[in-house]
Specification:
Layout (H helix, E strand, L loop, with lengths): L2 H12 L1 H10 L10 H6 L4 H11 L10
Helix pairs in contact: 1-2
Pfam families: DUF3046
Protein name: DUF3046 domain-containing protein
InterPro entries: DUF3046 (IPR021408)
């Protein structure tokens, strides 16, 4: 998944402002207790990051974005 696609999905699921907040503030266990921003900076693949988001927020992410 391209980085632009990742950000687009995150914003569609959470809205632009909340997506940035989640990326900066929520540490995901599936990402080694890193935030999205930290995981991207450490070279974690965006599909892996997206799967962590879906796992953490299954009711928030629409099925069309999974």
């Amino acid at each position: 998944m391209r980085l632009t696609d990742f950000w687009g999905r995150l914003e569609q699921a959470f809205g632009a402002a909340y997506a940035r907040s989640i990326a900066a503030d929520h540490a995901f266990a599936e990402l080694g207790d890193r935030t999205i921003d930290e995981a991207i900076a450490h070279g974690v693949e965006t599909i892996t990051i997206w799967r962590a988001v879906v796992a953490a927020y299954p009711d928030r992410v629409p099925s069309r974005l999974r």
